[in-house]
Amino acid sequence: MIIIMEPGASETQINSVIKHITDLGMRTVVNSGVVQTVIAAIGETSKYSTDQFEILEGVRKVERIQVPFKLVSRDSHHDDTIVTIGKNIKIGGNNPPVIIAGPCSVESEEILLSIAKVAKECGAKMLRGGAFKPRTGPRGFEGLGKIGLEFLATARKETGLAVVTEIMDTRDLDLICEFTDMLQVGARNMQNFSLLNEVGRTNKPVLLKRGLSATIEEWLLAAERILDKGNSQVVLCERGIRTFDNKYTRNTADIAAIPVVRKLSHLPIIFDPSHATGKWDLVGPLAKASVVAGAHGLIIEVHPEPEKALSDGPQTLNFENFKKLTKELELTSNLLASSKI
Ligand code: PEP
Ligand code: MN
């Protein structure tokens, strides 16, 4: 951490900043320039916020040299992490983009099985579906709970697809772990720190969605918490953020976050074009754009009759459009692999 003093900072102010740093157990390197003094604090700086030094008298600015998300950063782990789900699904590195498809909510065994079959036929490797659903209002469909998990397990058995489902409450952890191959932490819970701590203590792969208004740094710090608790099997998921404009799209799809995260972190990153746009006809273009931008996979909402879906119908693809999109995505990733785009 670098502490830049004001040009007119007094000897006393400089010495008191140095004392403050050494009292915290760090050492200092002081560079006294003609105009300003710059103090480097060396040691466990990630334990302290920059504010703590910025408020000291005579300090102009404080800057970190290291990123605060050490474990997820490429500084600590240079090569791409590849997360394995089930026996042999690999997300990350140079593996082809993994497609995760399914309904927003698990609604019935019959509907789920019909979706799982189409997903499998189209090359998806994983089935998504919420059994515990976060809803903005208290009277929306909140999922089937345990029965929904059982339907997911049946679909997994019938198709061989691995399953990802959302966890909202630490009290459901054991139950959900019994039924799922991957735990989804939803956008609304990205900063539910006790939930992050608990999923970090499991050995299940985690799909960590970006919060509705989370900065990339806050999102990576949420992942850092999971890694810090011992679980390194984290896949990040960009799902759009809230901006000033929601007239034509539900969220703003932050495609730039994909290459940014790939540069900063070794963890895989996938894209959710359904929640990122909120409109089924925007899912295809954005899905393709995300693959070109470097996404390691996609999570897409699919339903036989989106107009009858109990949640997120407007952003859900019907079977015909999902089939068409998966063909286009295959073409896109083949072109990418052969460096034609
Ligand atoms: C979902 O995947 O259906 C969902 C609720 O997503 P998010 O947490 O990104 O809103
Ligand atoms: Mn949804």
What key phrases describe this protein's structure?
341 residues, alpha/beta, Alpha-Beta Plaits, TIM Barrel, 11 helices, binds phosphoenolpyruvate, binds manganese (II) ion
Question: Could you please describe the fold and organization of this structure?
Answer:
It is a single chain. The model has no long low-confidence stretch (mean pLDDT 97). Strand 7 (98-102), helix 3 (109-121) and strand 8 form a beta-alpha-beta unit. The strands form three sheets. Strands 13-12-11-10-9-8-7-14 form an eight-stranded parallel β-sheet. Strands 2-3-1-4 form a four-stranded antiparallel β-sheet. It has eleven helices and 14 strands. Helix 3 (109-121) runs parallel beside helix 4 (146-159). The protein is α/β, with parallel strands linked by helices and 341 residues long. It folds into two domains: 2-63, Phospho-2-dehydro-3-deoxyheptonate aldolase, domain 1 (Alpha-Beta Plaits, 2-Layer Sandwich), CATH 3.30.70.1140; 83-339, Aldolase class I (TIM Barrel), CATH 3.20.20. It binds phosphoenolpyruvate (PEP) and manganese (II) ion. The site of manganese (II) ion has 5 residues, from loops. Phosphoenolpyruvate is lined by residues 104, 130, 134, 186-188, 209, 239, 275.
